[in-house]
């Protein structure tokens, strides 16, 4: 993961913690960077953060 991606994730995680009081959960061993945020009252997901590789332009 690039430094800019880590910085963006950190910003989003901080915002979600401040706004909604929630922390990320990491549910998949195969994808350790994927994070889920849940509503505190009903435990349903409200945010899923995943990674992806940028698509390369083809000539």
Give a short synopsis of this structure:
This protein has one helix at 3-20; strands at 35-38, 45-49. The radius of gyration is 14 Å and the shape is globular. It has 1 helix and 2 strands, in the order αββ.
Topology of this structure?
Layout: H1 3-20, E1 35-38, E2 45-49
Antiparallel strand pairs: 1-2
Q: How would you sum up this structure, described in words?
A:
The structure is a single chain. This protein is α+β, with helices and mostly antiparallel strands and 59 residues long. It has one domain (3-49): Aspartate Aminotransferase, domain 1. Helices cover 31% and strands 15% of the residues. It has one helix at residues 3-20; strands spanning 35-38, 45-49. The protein has a two-stranded antiparallel ribbon. The protein is globular. 2% of the residues are buried. The model has no long low-confidence stretch (mean pLDDT 87).
């Amino acid at each position: 993961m690039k430094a800019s991606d880590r910085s963006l994730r950190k910003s989003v995680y901080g915002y979600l913690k401040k706004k909604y009081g929630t922390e990320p959960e990491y549910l998949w061993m195969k994808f350790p960077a994927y994070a889920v945020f849940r509503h505190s009252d009903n435990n349903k997901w409200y945010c899923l953060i995943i990674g992806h590789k940028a698509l390369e332009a083809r000539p």
